[in-house]
Amino acid sequence: MSNISRYLCLLIFTPLFSLAQNKISGKVTDSKKHPLPGVNIALKGSYDGATTAADGSFSFTTTATGDQLLSASLTGYQTLELKINTAAGEQLNIVLKSAVNALRVVTISAGSFEASDDKKGTVLKPLDIVTTAGAGADIANAIKTLPGAQQTNDREGLFVRGGTGYETQTLIDGMLVRNPFYSSLPDIPGRGRFSPFLFKGTTFSSGGYSAQYGQGLSSALILESIDLPERSSSTVGVSVIGVNAGLDNLSKDKKTSYGIEADYTNLAPYFNIIKPKNAPNLGPEIIGTSVNFRRKTSRTGMLKFYGYGNWTKMGFNSNSLEYPGYTESFKLHNNNVYTNLTYRENIGRDWHLYIGTSFSSNTDNIDADTLQKNPGPSLIKVQSNLSQGRVMFYKNLGRFSVLRFGGEYQYAEERSAFNRNKANFTDNYTAAFAEGDIYFTPSFVGRVGGRAEYSSVLGEMNFAPRVSLAYKVNNFSQFSVAYGDYYQKPEPQYIRFDRNLGYMKATHYILSYQRVATDYTFRTEVFYKKYADLVKTVPMYNNNGSGYAQGVELFWRDRKTFKNVDYWISYSYLDTKRDYLNYPFRVQPDFAANHTASIVYKHFLPKLSTNLGLTYSFATGRPYYNPNQPTDKFMSDRTMTYNSVGVSASYLTNIRKAFTIFVLSVSNVLGNKQVFGYHYSSDGLRRDEVVPNVPRFIYLGMFMNFGIDRRQDVINNL
Questions:
Q1: What's the whole-number mean pLDDT along residues 259-274?
Q2: Cα–Cα distances in angstroms (integers) from residue 31 to residues 41, 59, 84, in the given order
Q3: Strand, coil or helix: what is 275?
């Protein structure tokens, strides 16, 4: 998806002035007649509603008439639906019953941040992701404000707890996404391809994740797509960088839906005004489209299809560091397709079935050249195709416990060519897993499982045991511990040239404490990660690399202290060293900072119908390679401290029957200088700073939505 589509997601969630006719009011208490504050009250099928005050009272107005269903929900209590007549004007007295399995039951949380609409222990929601200033409605950029993730804005991917971007895997509905980021140019990272509002659930696991998934040494970003939209809608958007349009259609019986979206982005006019460091020589231009289909096959069955395609062309010229006076040209044409089909069903006697299949293809055609200098351009083509199949059975054991087991198969084709030299390989990867969540008591749970994997290109099998325990101290607080082994194949560019490489390995140890209440979240975690069998490239390809990562992380979120304000603060301390690739010994790698922190602030102004956002991100300097230093000083130099402030503002009005939204967003608004590293000429006499291509990015757009108003989501989120 383009930047336009993501900002469209942000904008449709800003509230609209209400046109009320009937007043609904009352009070909500628990079974002991104690008032319940923070209860979400809403009319089903609309977004009219309110949140109860400290004394449990609520009041709102609605244009709905006649008999309606009123919903009352609060974390830790059973959701209640009550039939009312909006014209009756009666004072409602609502009693909510406690839900044992909501807050009193412990959940596995070590290493994981949940970001869903309905799961307990939620830290971020999709709305949080798209309204985080400076994130550009990108899931990965929003997650960088959480502890554990690094501010690596010169390269694509999520770098987590001392791991590379390759060590984090992205999955949609259980299926691996081979290329979740747009292809990048040198020192210019590609952003994520997905809008967060495609997903009802997002789990960012910074370590210790489930045995259901593999092939990620450090982390897993697990995305679960929505089932059916709430209603039919359509969208149109225009911004300074492109246009987009979309349609979601829900059948009358609300069992089937389909959607389609298309977008076009062209940054060339923008760069004609805001001059980048490196001048464009191709595009930048992106054409994207996506389709989805959902079918509720039975009361418990759901069939989902999702697919997208992106066609990108971009390139830049830069001054040659190696050949002063010459110009380096880099051009990229990228084609990417991803499809995903899944089916879930209850097959009886508390047994459930999941089946999934997917196919993805990514092709990069690269033209790199030192202009007007022999021997001429280097032509590079890299193509990756991945076909997958996955099946899982799971059974409920008693009231809370569950047993899961299943397997998956992947067929990967990796093709590459440098001018006329080719290096190709294929891999048949199979895996089996079994895992059980065993509740010894409602306050004490253990997750025990294991995963076995075989790769034909490596000719090697492994077995990875994983164990987690969690104990709930009270309705809000719990401790968790986790241990596990994680294996991953080396990156394709190394396997192409040496088929004798084996799996890389990481072992995780995690201890965490969290307290999650309705309006506050506190979380702290300590971890240790041991690396073994990392790839070395000198004196020849081998698996003799090793390393470690250890640290402490803190997270605090507050949605109550200040009226209409939501903020969170995160901090990470990381101590990591590794000996891999061409490193002569263990050192802190060039993508890791010892200290990182973020402050995210959001302020809703009801009278102005405006949302304001501010994000401050900080990281201490990262190591970089200076060839003029002796070997014993390898990677001893540090970049400057990273500081960035992003701001955003969105305003909503109504044009005829369309909700119309205007948005302004500015990254690095203060213009802080940011240096991510240095490039040196081969003789070490010249160097060039690695900096953002533009010091700040200014975005302005107008978007229209027909058929949906989600103002209540904003109210509930504050």
A1: 92
A2: 18, 21, 21
A3: coil
